[in-house]
Amino acid sequence: MRKKKLNVAVIMGGRTAEHEISLQTGEMIVNSLPRSRFNVKPAVITRRGRWIVRRGYLPEGNWSRRLFKGRKGTGIGAALTTLENDRVDVAFIAMHGPYGEDGTIQGLFEIMDLPYTGANVIGSSIGMDKIKFKELLLFHKIGVPAYITVSKEEWKKAPAAVVRRIERGIGYPCVAKPPRLGSSVGLAIPSSRKELKEALSHIFELDRLAIVEKYIEGTELTCAVLGGGPGKPPVALPVTEIVPKTSSYFDYKAKYTPGATEEITPARIDGRTTARVKRTALKVHRIIEGGGMSRTDMILSRGRLYVLETNTIPGMTKTSLLPQAARAHGIDFPELLEKIVDLAMEAHRVKKSFRH
Fold first, then answer.
1. CA atoms of 271 and 64, how far apart (whole Å)
2. 195/189 Cα distance (integer angstroms)
3. Are 35 and 56 a contacting pair, CB within 8 Å?
4. How far apart are CA 267 and CA 328, in angstroms?
5. Which of 141, 193, 248, 286 has minimal Cβ neighbours within 10 Å of its Cβ?
6. Confidence class of residue 251 from pLDDT cuts 50, 70 and 90?
C-alpha cells in the first residue's frame, strides 16, 4: 500500500537581520523536498511579523520566494488556522536568528502539538544565546576563547571603563559580536581602540548585550551532526575546513557569497584531530539537546581546539556547509531533508507517548 504523503509547511523569514538568508534557505528546502513523499506549503513571515500562508499545497515545479514579495500577510491567529485547516503534519523551520532559531517558534509549535524540525525549545534557546552557551560548555570543560560581556547600559554609562576592561582582559585583535544573532551579523575583529568603539556602537544597535572574545589564530573548522532518532546515537558528518578568500575571517559576506570562501571537505587535518573534532561536535550536540541537526564551529590553534558556537538551524543555501558535509557522507540534499523531517516526526511521537 502506498504511504500517505506528509503535509509539510516550510516556515521562513521573520523579524530578524537574517530575514533574507532565511528566505533563501526556505526556497531551497521548498524546491528540494521530494514531492513523491511530501505535499509542500511555503509560509513566509514578513519583517513586521505578519504571516503569508496560502491555502493548499504547491503543484509540481519550482517555487520562488519573490511570489510573496510585497504581500502584507495576516496576523498569526489566521495563519495558524490556515495551517490547521490544511492539516499540516510537520513544520520545517527554515528561520535563522531571533524568533526562529531561539526557541520561540519551537514553543509555539509545542503548544499547537505540531511536529517541527531541529532542536527542541531548550536546545534552540541555548544554541542561540552565545553567553549561556559558553557558560554551559565551560561547565562541561570544553574549551572556548576567553571572553567578556558588556551591556548597552554599561557602555552608555562608562565607555572608557569598558574599553579599558576589554584591553586588559582580552587585548587586540579581539572578536566583537552580538550574542543572540547568527550568520556573523554584526561581527567585527577590532585591532585598535577606535575600531573597538565602532564595533560596540554597531552591536548595540542590534542587541543590548555584546560579547568580546580573544582572537584565536588558527584553522577554522566546522562539524555538522545529524540526530540518530530516539534511542539512537547522533552521527557526526565529515569535518569541513573554512578558508575565507575575500576577508580575513568567516563574516556574513564570506558565508553567503559564492566563491568568497574555500570550503574543504574533508578538512586537511590528520585522523586523530578529525576524531577529536567529531567527538567535540557530538558532545556539544548532546549537551544542548541538538535534536535533528546541529553544526558546531571551532578553531584549531597549536593543537588546542576551541568551540566558537553551535547552529541549531544551519543554513541550507547553495553555499551552506551542512548540505556540503552531507554530500561528502553520501547523503544528497533531498535525502537530507527527508531525514530531518523523519527525525522530527519520530521525536514528536516519543514526546506524545509520555503525555497524560
1. 42
2. 8
3. no
4. 11
5. 141
6. very low
The beta-strand segments (E) located in 47-164 are 51-53, 90-93, 147-151
Rounded to the nearest 5°, which phi and psi values hold at 346? -65, -45
Quote the pTM value: 0.91
Residue 262, beta-bridge partner list:
243
Question: What single DSSP character describes residue 188?
Answer: B
Q: Distance of CA 261 to CAs 89, 243, 264, 265, 339, Å?
A: 38, 6, 9, 13, 28
pLDDT in tens, 159-206: 999 999 999 999 999 999 999 876 577 899 999 999 999 999 999 998
Integer Cα distance of 324 and 106 in angstroms: 26
Q: What percent of the chain has pLDDT over 90?
A: 79
Tell me the backbone φ, ψ of residue 11, rounded to 5 degrees. Answer: -95, 125
Q: Which CATH number does 127-142+218-331+338-347 carry?
A: 3.30.470.20
Task: Give the three-state DSSP class for 249.
Answer: coil
C-alpha to C-alpha distances, 245 to 239, 249, 251, 255, nearest whole angstrom: 19, 9, 11, 11
Torsion of CA 66, 92, 225, 329, to 10 degrees: -70
CA proximity to 93, closest of 188, 193, 26, 156 = 26
Say if CB 317 and CB 20 are below 8 A apart.
Answer: no
CATH numeric code, 147-214:
3.30.1490.20
**How far apart (Å, rounded) are the C-alpha atoms in residues 209 and 177?**
9
- Does residue 266 have a cis bond before it (omega within 30 degrees)? yes
- Give the CATH architecture of domain 6-116: 3-Layer(aba) Sandwich (3.40)
CA distances from 247 to 189, 243, 259, 260 (A): 11, 9, 12, 8
